[in-house]
Amino acid sequence: MNTTHIHLFLNHLPIIGSILGGLVLAHALWTKSEMTKIAAYNLLIISSVGAVITYLTGEEAEESIENIQGISKQLIEQHEEFALFALIALIILGVASLLGLIITIRKSSWSKTIATITLFISLISFGLIAKTGYMGGQIRHTELNGNTTMQDQGGTTENDED
């Protein structure tokens, strides 16, 4: 397994983790469950760490596919630039979650306030990381770009008429 595999394997973790952690945190706020809040923070911290690893493996993933015919270097660059914004948001989410975890364990009166702020950050982070994932998917999944014509080995497309 190389860093490209790691990038492709882990890129879903921050997407799913940020929304799942946010939903668990919303449930914790609604039910006033401190244990559920702790579980949500742990999910969000894991998602944040996954985002960092995914970002750090992105450059080598780019190098492994940038010379493949049909790969758009423009899409790769757009994905890479947008990924930085998502990374920053997820690092902020991870720090807020770590702070929330500490405050919740210490049973501070700030627990609900930090949880609400963290929930808001998780929603923003999810939006940014989901967009980043979509942009990354467009690099290899041409069907996401609306390009559904496939060339057969004879050089014709499935949409060509006889």
Q: Which key terms come to mind for this protein?
A:
single chain; mainly alpha; 76% helix; elongated
Give a structural overview.
- With 162 residues, this protein is an all-alpha fold.
- It has one domain.
- It has 5 helices and no strands.
- Helix 1 packs across helix 3 and helix 4 packs antiparallel against helix 5.
- It is elongated.
- The protein starts with a helix and ends in a 22-residue tail after the last helix.
- The C terminus is likely disordered.
What percent strand?
under 5%
Mean pLDDT: 85
**Structural class of the helices, strands and pairings?**
mainly alpha
Distance between the termini: 45 Å
SSE blueprint and pairings:
Elements: H1 3-10, H2 12-31, H3 34-65, H4 73-105, H5 111-140
Short description:
With 162 residues, this protein is mostly helical.
